[in-house]
Design a protein that fits this description.
Length: about 300
């Protein structure tokens, strides 16, 4: 890992009270996490007269390939702006994983990295979706679909038709014409997904995976490119959706839960907006599309 370059070192001491609080929290978080590590377990030489447990600042700096002076400035709460690569090196040096690793990225002003696997939260999300007797699905900050129920398949299409790497709302809406065919205003729904993605996370500004996703969709879809360049954001966590099912028109009202199981997750449930829609859902039965039940579910 290279030494932090221009733009990643100390900057003029200015900022809002919120910035000051964030820097103090970062300093205390780093100090607390290095205190938890045993130098012997990391193969570091024992030092005499250690007055505090854990690693020393120079130990962390060496493991992250940054200077001790630069790392010390972080623990002193100085206005330092580490690059994403340096934050990853610090997380590795401190053996951070899961929520701690994500929290370090957040404290340093970066979007948390996408998880390599859904982890135990995936089962909880799926159980939640299965217990909602209305169309429901859950996405992460990148709009990857993490869980869904049979009712959602009736309205949007069976998510299991697509491999996990393509089971992303943005990709499905702008690269898979068969997705969402029953929606009466598919274009409006797609616009809402784009606007929500822009407003709910800064990942598209800093996370390589999100940047790559936006760039790829901008090249392949003129519609996505136009929506993205409009820079509209969506703040509302409710709205109306309509879909034409074989038995009639379904009118649904969106209810959203944010941060379910982990930051960035979003649970969307579409409740019947009237008695006719509730009756239609019950009459449909909402079974998975024939031939796909139980296939490649999270």
């Amino acid at each position: 890992m290279p030494e932090p370059g221009p733009g990643t070192g100390p900057v003029p001491e200015s900022g809002s009270p919120a910035d000051d609080r964030r820097r103090r929290e970062l300093a205390e978080f780093l100090c607390a996490r290095r205190a938890r590590l045993d130098p012997a377990e990391l193969g570091l030489p024992s030092r005499r007269r250690r007055r505090v447990p854990g690693l020393r600042r120079e130990d962390v700096a060496d493991r992250a390939a940054v200077s001790t002076a630069w790392y010390t400035s972080l623990e002193q709460g100085r206005p330092v702006n580490p690059s994403r690569a340096v934050v990853a090196a610090l997380a590795d040096a401190l053996r951070l994983s899961g929520g701690d690793r994500s929290y370090l990225f957040t404290l340093t002003g970066h979007a948390p990295p996408a998880s390599a696997d859904a982890g135990p939260g995936a089962a909880l999300l799926q159980a939640l979706a299965d217990h909602v007797r209305a169309p429901a699905y859950c996405t992460d900050a990148f709009t990857n679909v993490l869980a869904w129920n049979p009712e959602a398949c009736e309205v949007f299409g069976d998510y299991a038709r697509w491999p996990a790497e393509r089971r992303n709302l943005l990709r499905l809406l702008f690269e898979e014409p068969a997705f969402g065919e029953r929606l009466t205003d598919r274009e409006g729904y797609a616009a809402h997904v784009v606007q929500t993605f822009r407003s709910r996370s800064g990942a598209y500004l800093s996370d390589p995976a999100a940047i790559q996703l936006v760039d790829a969709l901008s090249r392949r879809s003129a519609r996505f490119k136009a929506l993205w360049e409009a820079r509209d954001v969506r703040r509302a966590d409710t709205g109306t959706l309509q879909a034409d099912l074989p038995g009639g028109r379904l009118v649904l009202t969106l209810v959203t839960l944010q941060g379910v199981t982990s930051p960035g997750t979003r649970f969307n449930a579409y409740l019947p907006a009237d008695s006719a829609s509730a009756s239609l859902l019950r009459a449909t039965g909402c079974r998975p599309i024939a031939g796909t039940a139980g296939r490649d579910r999270p």
